[in-house]
Amino acid sequence: MAEFTMEPNDEQKEVREWLHGFAADVIRPAAAEWDEREETPWPVIQEAAKVGIYSLDFYAQQYFDPTGLGIPMAMEELFWGDAGIALSIVGTGLAAVGVLANGTEEQIGTWIPQMYGDPDDVKVAAFCSSEPDAGSDVASMRTRAVYDQAKDEWVLNGTKTWATNGGIANVHVVVAVVDADLGSKGHASFIVPPGTPGLSQGQKFKKHGIRASHTAEVVLEDVRVPGSCLLGGKEKLDERLARARERAGKGAERVKNAAMATFEASRPAVGAMAVGTARAAYEVALDYARTREQFGRPVIDNQGVAFQLADMRTSIDAARLLVWRASWMAVNGRPFTAAEGSMSKLFASETAKKVTAQAIQILGGNGYTREYPVERMHRDAAIYTIFEGTSEIQRLVIARTLSGMPIR
Ligand SMILES: Cc1cc2nc3c(=O)[nH]c(=O)nc-3n(C[C@H](O)[C@H](O)[C@H](O)COP(=O)(O)OP(=O)(O)OC[C@H]3O[C@@H](n4cnc5c(N)ncnc54)[C@H](O)[C@@H]3O)c2cc1C
Description:
Blueprint (H helix, E strand, L loop, with lengths): L9 H28 L4 H10 L4 H8 L6 H12 L1 H20 L2 H12 E2 L2 E2 L2 E4 L15 E5 L4 E12 L6 E7 L9 E6 L6 E6 L10 E12 L7 H16 L17 H25 L1 E2 L2 E2 L4 H29 L8 H28 L6 H8 L9 H13 L5
Parallel strand pairs: 3-6
Antiparallel strand pairs: 1-2, 4-5, 5-9, 6-7, 8-9, 10-11
Helix pairs in contact: 1-4, 4-5, 4-8, 5-6, 8-9, 8-10, 8-11, 9-10, 10-11, 10-12
The chain binds flavin-adenine dinucleotide.
Cofactor: FAD
Pfam family, one: Acyl-CoA_dh_N
Family: Belongs to the acyl-CoA dehydrogenase family.
């Protein structure tokens, strides 16, 4: 097990500098344009693919870094560049992780390369779990997967919503109900291969922030996928369902919905994205406060402004420490006895919302315009308290973990 450290090693510092360079030179200059266009920034994804940032290898290296700092440092730098573009770059990773976590070696080898494509022909992937009536309450999911034994095919029907890259993805990973009596334990994940008939994009959402990231409904009408597209395989699913039925039969506590279960290991990564956005806005505000003069002196000379900056920086550093701790715990298999992963996501995302609002205030009228980036950063920051479990759900998970009580 790696000791917890707050000092990145030389290799990590080098990777961080490299990512920062890409974020500063390629992502940040493109941010305003793609925010206005509200489209996936394909050329930027392609640039990222060419230098090796948009690839499974890169994420796998960061993911398996035993210090736990690899992923949070990478996310912070990319999202420092711009949240919408960065989500377009890392969004495929959400689907890839779904396959890595549940898929067989063969499934990993077959589908993950198709999710990324290659630098001359980049592709993206989508992870589709949320539905119009199943957001925080994942257990109320309705999309059904029915097995057609004669053909060894699964038939998927339902509507997914809020899917990042939904409808434009080469590969969709779709979570569906195979046994409705088992709550989220009766769910399974399926690969929908490129060009499968019956899968279509529904509404594309016009959003408040992260507008360079494509978010849409995905409609599944009699989508037939081969048996080999069930992640983990049928045998494993049947065993898991049998165990869940046995537990349910013994009166074990009804399975809690998946959004409320502890996604402790993945949440610090979202916390790190929020730290990146918060740090970006703080840096713009600090710079502005030092140079903008009113009443014959820089506005930072006023305690009211300087103290805000002090609070902003303090919260950002605190958020990063919570993120790094949780990420180190995840990589080293430490039990999350106080829901430390949820804690890190909760604190970092609330910090990003607050700090970006403070940054607007420090820039005054300029902060409120699209001439300066803090307005966009504030719109972007609002997503962190919503996706991957809202702030309320994080508090619920933390409170339940601490108290052991079924708090509602
Ligand atoms: C831009 C964007 C990208 C997304 N990307 C994806 C994706 O790629 N794949 C995917 O599957 N999903 C994705 N999502 C969905 C996202 O995870 C959900 O929006 C989120 O889980 C919240 O669900 P909901 O929107 O239905 O809100 P609801 O669950 O309807 O919640 C509404 C409000 O009620 C509160 N609330 C709900 N239950 C409780 C409770 N028990 N206690 C206290 N408060 C409660 C919530 O905190 C919230 O404030 C994305 C969403 C957005 C906006």
